[in-house]
Amino acid sequence: MNAPFPFGFPWPTAFYLTLYVVTFAIHVAFMHYVIAGSSYLVTVAVRNRPVDPDRRGTLLRDWMPLMLSAAITAGVAPLLFVQILYQKPYYTANLLLFNRWMAILPALIVGFYLLYLLKSPLATRRGMWLRVVITAGAFGCFFFTGWSWTENHLLSLQSNEVWAQHYAEGRTRFWTITLIPRLITWFAAAFPTLAIWLAWQIRLTADDDTENHATVIGRLALTAWIGMAISVIAGIVLLVMDPPEVRQAVLGIAGIPWMLLGIAGVAAQAIGWWQLRGVGRLCRSRLTIISAGCSASILAGAVLRELMRISRLDIAAFYPKHAAAAEVGGLVVFLFFFAVNAVIIGYCIWLVRSADQLAPTDDAPAQDEVHSA
Known about the structure:
disordered C terminus
């Protein structure tokens, strides 16, 4: 890898790597909301506050099923591309983990319905302990899914000898010490993303300016700062624990531009939240800067994660399969439906925003009442 990612690869490989990283970054943005948001809902349930002062808990309960659906849907594309890129390692890890790996499907189904149950009157009437059980169950399902994906990913990076030993022993779990810093890195990184999601939601759904106060900004800023600090520290620990070839790939020509982008993204978020605290309201311009920094960090993290995988696999052995896949028709159809769906989604968002702006408020009399008066 003598060029910045994704250059230096044959064009079919570079094409699939680019699509994989971009679609994976989109999935991560929604996944962060779900995993960090569900963990926050557990704390809300335990504290059992009768009033939600800054509406974070209310927004999370209302939006969580939709965001989980978005995370699952956005995860389909990277799941398809990773199968093209790394057929043998990916399928081998799936088969070796077997039922342990397939358990993510019922876990997601249970977690999905628990989120809807949390919004039901039953959860409201039955008291704190039922809400604690529901939120903890949902978080457990999503954390189990993330754990399983990480476990599968690490197993796919092992040698044939490790795979043979794993199969011979009949194990359905794979353990390595690097699993801990890797999980901590991705879990902590979810909280800065959640903070910016909630900031936009509070700003765009506020009834008046009184909700854009310093208290909620301070809480969101602290959430983002702590999440970024823990994620960076855990990422450094992971890099130190990984083999030398991994550090060479991340800190070499292929990875250093993306490492700098990630650092710039973290700096933009840290400074943006500090400035937002000084302003004392959820300013659109500063939220946009923080969002851009968060997006840059997620994309850079996705690229560096891929470089860490490539450095431990003989990716050149997959070049012929990538070239063969690129010769199969369907790209034009894929791009067509991608554009169509993007337009439809944008139109739906516009319809919802337009309906929300036209809806009468409690202070404004309905049109019929005005005419009758």
